[in-house]
Design a protein that fits this description.
It is a single chain. By secondary structure, this protein is mostly helical. The longest helix has 35 residues. It has a three-stranded mixed β-sheet, covered by helices on one side. The two termini are 31 Å apart. The radius of gyration is 25 Å and the shape is globular.
Length: 592
């Protein structure tokens, strides 16, 4: 997840003396004053957002705001100094705001802005990944989005792209100057992803031939593509030399960030109302609960799948053998992506028929193979349009397996067997990320939409899995619940793994052992999760943190409201607040 920031508006109260009024008059005037304050807040936020996008043109393109699409920011010392000046300026205005005169919606916007603003400074001055992660640098994504999204005529988009391309050589020179004692794993990721930047240039040249640009503009574009290609190739060669030097001298920085960085990063990113250490201990308890449920189901399913095979006394062996046998039920390599495409309309129909949450068929979901520049950390993901271009395609990115060795492909297919492959699409698409982000783009709060909380977003996707099975999806069979428990155990293990690696110095050997034996993941999945934990921090905890808060809150309301509780209404109201932290959504729902 990329981190962005926004500041709140400065609104000065106008004071005057008047005769003492009746209680009714005072209440009416207070309501009017509050409304006026909210209006001023909204107006200044609009002004700020334009200023923000001007300083963050890549994020603007991702959000569907194209006013500064022709700008490529050079990541040098001057740019970092300007960002801190920008933060300081808006923090001063932000601190002067009278928060007592804002309504709940704006007040919670303000809480999110406070967090984002503080986080922006911390990431810049303390975390400083810009100097140790070469994978921070790449130009492909905004170029690809500008090419794919028809926000303007092709010729207009190509001219904006041409201006960006002109700055690519300076961009990569700045990137190389920034890097100091990098992390080996992040260096390798940058090497793996760099060819994706070149692929985008190939696409640009193809589109150029289809355009009606003048011969002079085409010649300029072509020369800039050539210079950009040389810079990208040069960065790739530099990265390979850098890796060789790190291997030879053994002076790479550890990818483990330690507790001193982990806890504040967790607080900024997750906003869960508990520390990372507290969530870690809760995950350990939930892990034991899931294993108990799986153990009971394994005894029930054993005769059907294992026949006369003797049942092991050890629960890990018993559960593991049953999973291993059931995982033989999976699609073929060439059917992996087509099966995911086939499943989407089935999920959409189920959600509609069971009145679980509203959908919008005017906002398309496109299943596609993951672009090369995005590969390397996850097998499936969602790329959703920003709030300024909400009707653009949402992409369900699926990494095909035909490039893997037969052994690795088989391992992945067993992990995403016939049951879990369905749960994967529930999580990523319907009614998970795709549906939640569609609702977020309709939220009246642009703050909550743009600067959404990752734990809420991931937590909803995990919650949607449980909710779908509770509605009867999958036939309420012990097989589906058994495999769901295995999948959910992975969510819990994500938290345990991430904290253990970055704070408790868990070794790769112990991590893989935990994931394969105690969480029943395939070797390929476990290796991939280790890689992901070595390339990211804290994000793996967002799934369990968000799910636990949402599920607990729903069950609390069900207990309080009894027969009056309506699941559809709960989902609609919950999602209407955009991607705010769950604790803020709970606060607003309690008041309304």
């Amino acid at each position: 997840m990329k981190y962005t920031l926004i500041a709140a508006a400065l609104a000065t109260a106008c004071l005057s003396f008047a005769p003492v009024a009746s209680a009714t008059t005072v209440k009416a005037n207070a309501a009017h004053t509050q409304s006026s304050e909210d209006a001023r807040f909204d107006q200044l936020v609009k002004q700020f957002l334009d200023d923000y996008w001007k300083h963050n043109p890549d994020s603007a393109v991702s959000a569907g705001y194209y006013k500064y699409a022709d700008v490529l920011d050079i990541p040098n010392a001057a740019s970092r100094k300007e960002l801190l000046r920008f933060v300081n300026d808006w923090q001063k205005r932000f601190a002067a705001l009278n928060t007592n005169r804002l309504d709940d919606g704006h007040r919670t916007d303000l809480a999110m802005l406070n967090n984002q603003l503080d986080a922006a400074r911390w990431y810049q001055e303390t975390f400083r990944s810009w100097e140790w992660s070469p994978a921070n640098y790449g130009v492909a994504e905004p170029l690809s989005l500008m090419l794919a999204n028809t926000y303007a005529p092709l010729e207009t988009r190509l001219q904006a792209i041409s201006k960006r391309l002109a700055r690519v050589p300076a961009y990569y020179e700045a990137a190389k100057a920034n890097i100091h004692q990098p992390v080996m794993e992040h260096t390798q990721l940058a090497i793996d992803q760099n060819p994706g930047n070149l692929e985008v240039l190939d696409s640009l040249e193809k589109k150029l031939g289809e355009s009606k640009l003048s011969a002079a503009d085409k010649a300029l574009f072509t020369s800039r593509v050539a210079a950009a290609r040389k810079a990208i190739q040069g960065y790739g060669d530099w990265l390979k030399d850098l890796k060789a030097s790190l291997e030879k001298n053994g002076n790479a920085r550890s990818f483990r960030i330690g507790k001193a960085l982990y806890e504040p990063m967790f607080a900024y990113e997750i906003q869960a109302g508990m520390t990372a250490e507290q969530l870690y201990h809760r995950a350990l308890q939930e892990k034991e609960s899931l294993l108990g449920r799986m153990d009971k189901l394994s005894v029930e399913l054993w005769p059907k799948y294992m026949g006369d095979t003797a049942m092991p006394a050890d629960r890990f062996d018993r559960i593991g053998q049953l999973i291993n046998k059931m995982s033989e039920h999976h699609v073929k390599v060439e059917e992996f992506v087509p099966e995911i495409k086939r499943r989407i309309p089935i999920l959409e129909a189920w959600v509609d028929e069971h009145h679980l949450v509203s959908q919008d068929k005017t906002r398309p979901l496109v299943v596609r193979e993951t672009p090369v520049y995005m590969r390397g950390t996850a097998g499936a993901s969602i790329s959703a349009p920003g709030p300024y271009d909400p009707k653009a395609n949402t992409y369900y990115n699926v990494t095909p397996l035909d490039g893997d060795t037969p052994e690795r492909a088989e391992s992945w297919l067993r992990e995403y067997n016939d049951w879990i492959l369905q749960i994967l699409s529930i999580h990523e698409a319907v009614p998970g990320h795709y549906v939640q982000l569609m609702h977020a783009n309709k939220s009246p709060s642009i703050v909550k939409t743009i600067f959404g909380n990752g734990a809420m977003v991931e937590g909803w996707a995990v919650y949607s899995e449980r909710m779908m099975l509770e509605s009867g999806y999958g036939g309420n069979t012990p097989e589906m619940w058994f495999m769901y428990a295995k999948w959910n155990l992975r969510v819990v293990s994500n938290t345990i793994l991430d904290y253990s690696i970055h704070v408790l110095d868990m070794s790769k050997e112990d991590a893989l052992k935990m994931l394969t034996r105690e969480a029943f993941q395939s070797q390929a999945e476990a290796e991939g999760k280790w890689r992901r934990a070595s390339l990211s921090q804290v994000q793996l905890t967002s799934y369990f943190a968000g799910f636990a808060e949402i599920y607990d809150f729903r069950n609390q309301l069900k207990a309080e409201q009894g027969e009056k509780f309506n699941l559809y209404n709960f989902h609609e109201q919950f999602l209407s607040y955009g991607s705010a932290p769950v604790r803020l959504i709970k606060e607003m729902m309690r008041k309304h």
